[in-house]
Every structure is written in structure tokens, then in C-alpha cells.
Amino acid sequence: MKSRLTEYLNHLMLPIPGGVETVRDYRDEQKWISSNSKMSMPGQKGKLTEIEKRVEIKAFLMAKYPVTEGLYQEILSRTGETAKKMLEVGAKANNMPVMKVSWYEAVSFCNRLSKACGLQECYAIDKHSGHVGFEPQANGYRLPTDAEWQYACKATSEGYRYGEITDIAWYKDNAEEQVHEAGKKQPNEWGLYDMLGNVWEWCWDLYDEKTYGEYRVFRGGSWAEEARGCGATSRRRGHPTFKIDDLGFRLARSWE
């Protein structure tokens, strides 16, 4: 199983060159109000303040597709059956992006995958408190940071999108109210597919600890999202236990 898994992952992970990315966000100075503590959309907005920071991005590896059902179920089940199907041409069901995955489940999966591949786990997860620590020197699989995700999405482009939205993304106007098989739209210049549309993708970062507490960032838009929400700088937030049928994640690894 390990050799087949390694073969798949070697094909999946692409090198992303280092650089600098400017991340902008608009923060609400008033206390956030919502009728549902796990939802990502605010119930009320006050005066917005623009936050801008320049982040140095070290070269890293990023998956060309979001994590698929095939890979996800393979690692959770620890059997060879799904791995065989995952590598078969035309195994459509296994090539669907996994959805309804919480942030906690995403980081746990990264650790499981790292262990299966004989790599050092990136996350220290306290089962009692739920606290998740990060080991920056680990060589295993992890979630991309907020800045890494935006930088990788834009690739060589400078605009809100790296191409015409109908060519690169499944979104509300063309998805027919459903998720689609990964990799069927055009990739960006670095070979990454579905960075926009299809499923939102969890990132490592807290959104704004002072205002939103434990809420984490997710990026990219989805099959259910309007066009305006599918862009390189579009950011949403969700409680780490939050899960919904258009939210998944993508793998990253630090450069060895």
C-alpha cells in the first residue's frame, strides 16, 4: 500500500517557488454578532478597518488537487482497497473533493497521512483541550498558511483570478448545484487545479483571534458560491468544528 500511496503523492505534490505576498483583510472594530456560533458569515458589521501585511513565502510543496474522497477514505480505513481504486483511471467517485470536513478533522488527516508515509507529524493535538500546536521543522503533510494559499492561487497572475471564471472554476452559475470531479477545469500557471470554486479550502491560520477567537480561515469559493466570492483574495472564517457540503482542504508540505 505504501508504495502505491507514495506514487500517488509524488504525482500530487508540486513545487511552489518562494516569494512575497501581500495579504489584505477588512476587520470589524465592533464585537462580532451571529445567530449561529459556528457559521462563517457575520450577523452585523460595524466600522471596517483595512489590515495589510507583506509575508515572505518560503518555497514549499502544494497539492495540485484538493484532497479527494479516495485519498481521504484510504488513509482513514488503512486498507488497500481504496488506494487501488484511487489510482484507476476513471474512478470518478474517488476523485471527488472530500467535503463536510472540519478544520480539526483536516489537521488530524494530515497527521495520519504523514505517519502512513513515515514522515514527522506537523501537529501536536491535545485530545483533552483540543489545542493544536504546529512543529515548523516537521517534514510531514500540513495545511497551507493563509498567505501561502493566496500566493499559490495567484501564481504568476496579479488579478483577482488567474483566468476566466468559467474556464477555471465550478461555481454557482455553472456547477448545477453539485460538486465536480477534481481537475476538470484549467489549472493556474503553477499547475494547481480548483484553487477557485468547487470546494472551499481550510488554511492553518486563525482569522482574527481578538474578535473571532478560535475561528480559522478558509479560501477559494465553491460550487455553491456566487462569482464574486471565487477569487484569490476572498477569505471566509469558520469555527474549527464547522463542516458543510462545500468545504474541504488541500495538502501542503514544507520544502525539505
Q: Please state how the strands of the largest beta sheet are arranged side by side.
A: 1-4-12-7
Contiguous low-pLDDT stretches (5 residues minimum) are 31-45, 85-90
Q: What is the C-level CATH assignment? A: Alpha Beta
State the fourth-level CATH superfamily. Answer: paralog of FGE (formylglycine-generating enzyme)
* CATH level-two architecture: Alpha-Beta Complex
Q: What's the total helix number?
A: 7
General shape:
globular
Q: What share of the residues lie within helices?
A: 10-25%
> Overall pLDDT, averaged?
87
**CATH fold label:** paralog of FGE (formylglycine-generating enzyme)
Radius of gyration: 18 Å
Our measurement of the CA-to-CA distance between the termini, rounded to an integer number of angstroms, reads 24 Å
Report on the structure:
By secondary structure, the protein is α+β, with helices and mostly antiparallel strands. It has 7 helices and 12 strands. A 4-stranded antiparallel β-sheet has the order 1-4-12-7. The longest helix is centred in the middle third of the chain and has 14 residues, at 103-116. It is globular.
Would you kindly provide a brief summary of this structure?
The chain has 256 residues and is of the alpha+beta class. It is 22% helix and 22% strand.
Which terms summarize this structure?
22% helix; 256 residues; four-stranded antiparallel beta sheet; paralog of FGE (formylglycine-generating enzyme); globular; alpha+beta
How does the SSE layout of this entry go?
Layout: H1 2-12, E1 13-16, E2 19-28, E3 48-57, E4 60-63, H2 69-77, H3 81-86, H4 103-116, E5 123-125, E6 132-134, E7 141-142, H5 146-154, H6 165-168, E8 200-206, H7 209-212, E9 216-219, E10 235-238, E11 247-249, E12 252-254
Parallel strand pairs: 8-11
Antiparallel strand pairs: 1-4, 2-3, 4-12, 5-6, 7-12, 8-9, 9-10
Organism: Anoxynatronum sibiricum
Protein name: Formylglycine-generating enzyme family protein
InterPro entries: CTDL_fold, Sulfatase_Mod_Factor_Kinase, SUMF_dom, SUMF_sf
